[in-house]
Amino acid sequence: MMRLFFIAAVIFQLCTGFAHAASFPQSRAENLLGQKADFPGDLPGDPALILVAFKRSQQSDIDAWMEALDLKGTAGIAWIEMPVVGGATKVMKPLLDGWMRDGIPDLDAQARVFTLYSSRKRFKKALGVPKTPGILAVVAKSNGQIVTLVEGGPTPKAVEAVLSALGASK
After folding, report:
1. Which carries the bigger pLDDT value, residue 157 or residue 102?
2. What does the alpha-carbon distance between residue 46 and residue 141 come to, in Å, rounded to a whole number?
3. Dmax of the chain from CA atoms?
4. pLDDT at 19 over 50
5. Which residues contact residue 36 at a Cβ distance below 8 angstroms, ignoring those fewer than 6 apart?
6. DSSP readout, 115-158?
7. To 5 degrees, how large is the angle CA 113–CA 57–CA 86?
8. How sure is the predictor about 99, in pLDDT bands with cuts at 50, 70 and 90?
9. Is residue 9 pLDDT above 90, yes or no?
10. Do 47 and 165 contact (CB within 8 A), yes or no?
11. What integer pLDDT is reported at residue 69 of this predicted model?
12. Cβ neighbours for 76, distance < 8 A, ≥ 6 positions apart
């Protein structure tokens, strides 16, 4: 009976978020307006949602989360977008940031995009998800505690897990 309960608990965690003891890694990033921030301390809320992408092709998943949570509207959710690009690309930072700025004309949106030039592998490992291929929807507190972490797009269960962790409702 205990074994069945354990299996059910693991399946629930896999459907709604990862079970982990990791915390959000200490990192310094700059938004597209040139403002520097130290995370997790400078998160825009406590807790806050961080949509983390590792590849340009994952922007559609970020956009899907933004739509599912009405982040462009008046949802009242504190959130940022964090593309994590390889540390070796830091020499191309002005060019990459310029391309991103050109693709995001809205200044409020630019203020929420904090690009992290760091090792993707090290960042994923610090979050406790070293092999994840997809984007991450992370709800974290300013002290680094991860409330929930969901991989991939916004399935109904994933949206429910994120909203619950944020103490919000749709």
Report:
1. 157
2. 5
3. 58
4. no
5. 28, 29, 30
6. EEES-HHHHHHHHT-TT--S-EEEEE-TTSBEEEEEESS--HHH
7. 65
8. confident
9. no
10. yes
11. 94
12. 168
- Phi, psi (5° rounding) for residue 157? -70, -40
Cα 163 to Cα 136: distance, rounded to the nearest angstrom: 14
Q: What is the pTM of this model?
A: 0.82
Whether the pLDDT of residue 79 is over 90: the answer is yes
Q: What is the pLDDT of residue 150?
A: 94
Name the one residue in this structure whose structure tokens are 């391309």. Answer: 99
Spatial distance between the Cα atoms of 28 and 42, rounded to a whole number of angstroms: 10
Alpha helices in the chain (DSSP H): 2-16, 59-68, 93-103, 107-112, 120-127, 156-166
Q: 156-166 and 2-16 helices cross at what angle (nearest 10)?
A: 90
Neighbours of 105 (CB within 10 A): 8
As a whole number, mean pLDDT of residues 148-157 equals 95
Query: Residue 45 and residue 58: Cα distance in Å, rounded?
Result: 24
68 SS3 class: helix
